[in-house]
Amino acid sequence: MAKSLPVSPLAPASFPDLPVIKGVRFASASAGVKYQGRTDVMLAVMDPGTSVAGVFTRSKTRSAPVLDCQAKLGGAADAGAAILVNSGNSNAFTGRHGQTSVAEITSAVAAAGGLPAERVFTASTGVIGEPLPHGRIVAKIGELNSALDETALEGAARAIMTTDTFAKGASATVGIEGKTVKIAGIAKGSGMIAPDMATMLVYIFTDAKVEQAALQAQLAEICDRTFNCITVDSDTSTSDSLMLCATGASGVDATGNAEFAAGLERVMLDLSHQVVRDGEGATKFVEIQVTGAATDADAKVHGLAIANSPLVKTAIAGEDPNWGRVVMAIGKSGAEADRDQLSISFGDVLVAEKGWVSPGYKEELGAAEMKKQEITIKVDLGLGSGQATVWTCDLTHQYISINADYRS
Amino acid sequence: MAKSLPVSPLAPASFPDLPVIKGVRFASASAGVKYQGRTDVMLAVMDPGTSVAGVFTRSKTRSAPVLDCQAKLGGAADAGAAILVNSGNSNAFTGRHGQTSVAEITSAVAAAGGLPAERVFTASTGVIGEPLPHGRIVAKIGELNSALDETALEGAARAIMTTDTFAKGASATVGIEGKTVKIAGIAKGSGMIAPDMATMLVYIFTDAKVEQAALQAQLAEICDRTFNCITVDSDTSTSDSLMLCATGASGVDATGNAEFAAGLERVMLDLSHQVVRDGEGATKFVEIQVTGAATDADAKVHGLAIANSPLVKTAIAGEDPNWGRVVMAIGKSGAEADRDQLSISFGDVLVAEKGWVSPGYKEELGAAEMKKQEITIKVDLGLGSGQATVWTCDLTHQYISINADYRS
């Protein structure tokens, strides 16, 4: 199915050149979990001393792999670690069989790599509620283990795709005390995207040395400004997982370092935007900047109400500068708003202020903004200093086609 | 625009025969607010002694007519009352001009009917953010006033339509102490439907005599089980208004009467279902029955999360028995759930239980249920005795077509 979809018009020109992250190696293989003629399993193996942090969906029906990862977080770093991910089946709502699948896979990876099973993390993405044919994955672990290569991150990015139309990667290089630390990550989307902790699947690696608890705290904080600020369709996956592995191979301690945090945020923001750019059926990338709210939390509530509104999203698809629907979304969001203090701009065009259309607004100016592929909607509540920025895409016929026909 | 849409496949065969409600008369006219070649204004005038109750959107950006109605509720019944409604323009987010329009219309209706302006209620539905050409409406008030007729409720139902593909009416007759009380109502939808107090516009009339405060309390309570349990697209209008007028012309006091409450609930449920059946692009009518939740409130949260999920709604459009998406929606709703206590049925087919697919489930059984035009999804949380039923429709290409092209 993924192969038959046209590449998103919002896709980057090509997969980026990612730096090698010392201390971690990758491999991918074709296990035939569901898809034929493509890779569908990836393995990452980290050296001893690697700190592992993670944030996961808060869904009450989260998958067996997510529950297993959450239980294992915070373990000792001295034994190294591994991550195995399959696409084509999410191993969610699969009862006791789901737990068995996780146990079979993690013990096989542990045995092949000489690791304790408590340091093997897994993720599964794809259809919900069908038993994972874990035997097909276990049968490929020897092949994966012998193919591990520090340059194989792009192949890993391709193996975890489902309805994604392009592979997603991003990187940053940060100077700390005259030395260099590298960060590289991959992600997949591209429907069921309204992350409550992270998006579907994201894996980020760095050769920085960061103490585990500090890494976890930093990851969660940045996630709130990046992956937790994107939405494609308001639907939250049962499998959302974002893991960050710091191998320490650079010998540079970045614990609490602000430059490192900024570099990590650039990578996470870049990947989160790529997920939106590959939102199912997307033809427009939309940034919603909310300012002047009573609190930052209120600003985010307003931003996500606009971003999730089917009527706003279809208006954008139709290139209609329908600011009345933005007013509607603000009104329904539940967060504080005063109709007569509100102003709304499309790009730099002020369309509405003081409870009505702006005196200088002309429909053709708004219409010109909406014809762009990258659209900015600015909302100022006029109430306080709370602000937030969220990102989304439009809602098109292609979204309906993908989701009325595809069993995901 | 409304005229070019095909009639919903879920529409009733014809508009129902509605009983005459003594004490109220109706008229409709073509004022050319926006639409051409159809009626777009309706007037209802109630005799002295009529109690008027209303529930309205809780949107923070609600329209000028809504604010005006809310301020006037609870006034003395001895002077009679009137309701004037226009379609084609919602008079929402129209600043000071919006208040002027309301004042011009209400004072003209008051002058023509010999009523105080404090007893004239208005509503406007259609595009947000454009000035209401109230002069066109005021010019028709004399014509409306002289055409008032107790049998003209169907015409009023037609005048308030926007993207509705059929006019909506319902009625009940209730025996109280050997006498008969009648209830008749009309409604319009059909996008921006996720009522927070009521749906877009609903007007219900009865010849029962009910004390005003009791009528208001009864209306709000029933609204929570009817109009507040439907959703088309999760978007809440700036104009939602539901008004109930009890003329008392029957001479029967129904204050606090259980039979009357049951009759009123039948009318409200019927009208709310008709709004869903005319949801933009709808091809399936979906009832979601949630039981076994920790509380009734939790059950409604789960029901609405399922009903509003784009992935559930597109699966229904595609006749795909994709129960995994129901699991996802329950997981994200925020209300209490235990994956392993959950059971899900499509119609009478048990598809999932105890955290996994039901042993006896066969895909073809689920698929047969999904081919029906009326679909029931039953969810039991297995946690307590909380329950709720909500209603929605599917999400189709036609919804995208209507909303990417139509400025509403």
What does this structure look like?
- The structure is a homodimer of 408-residue chains.
- Chain A has helices at 64-72, 95-113, 134-138, 141-146, 153-159, 212-225, 258-277, 296-308, 310-317, 323-332, 363-370, 397-405, and strands spanning 24-29, 41-46, 51-56, 81-89, 120-127, 168-176, 179-188, 201-206, 230-231, 241-246, 285-293, 343-346, 349-353, 356-357, 374-380, 386-393.
- With 408 residues, chain A is of the alpha+beta class.
- The model of chain A has no long low-confidence stretch (mean pLDDT 89).
- The interface between A and B is large, with 69 and 69 residues.
- Chains A, B: Heterotetramer of two alpha and two beta chains.
- Chains A, B: Pfam families: ArgJ (PF01960).
- Chains A, B: Belongs to the ArgJ family.
Q: How do you describe this structure in short?
A:
Two copies of one chain form a homodimer. With 408 residues, chain A is α+β, with helices and mostly antiparallel strands. Helices cover 31% and strands 25% of the residues of chain A.
Backbone shape of chain A: globular
The helix-strand sequence of chain A is: EEEHEHEHHHEEEHEEHEHHHEEEHEEH
Q: What is the subunit organization of this protein?
A: homodimer
Give the second-level CATH assignment, the architecture of the largest domain in chain A. Answer: 4-Layer Sandwich
Largest interface: A-B, 69 and 69 residues
Provide the number of structural domains of chain A. Answer: 2
Across the major sheet of chain A, the strand order is 9-16-11-15-12-13-14
Mean pLDDT of chain A: 89
Regarding CATH, which class of the largest domain in chain A? Answer: Alpha Beta
The level of helicity of chain A is 25-40%
Distance between the termini of chain A: 10 Å
CATH topology of the largest domain in chain A: L-amino peptidase D-ALA esterase/amidase
Structural class of chain A: alpha+beta
Largest sheet of chain A: 7 strands, mixed
**Which percent range describes the beta-strand content of chain A?**
25-35%
Uncertain residue segments of chain A: none
Pfam family, one (chains A, B): ArgJ
Enzyme class (chains A, B): transferase
Pathway (chains A, B): Amino-acid biosynthesis; L-arginine biosynthesis; L-ornithine and N-acetyl-L-glutamate from L-glutamate and N(2)-acetyl-L-ornithine (cyclic): step 1/1; Amino-acid biosynthesis; L-arginine biosynthesis; N(2)-acetyl-L-ornithine from L-glutamate: step 1/4
Catalytic activity (chains A, B): N(2)-acetyl-L-ornithine + L-glutamate = N-acetyl-L-glutamate + L-ornithine; L-glutamate + acetyl-CoA = N-acetyl-L-glutamate + CoA + H(+)
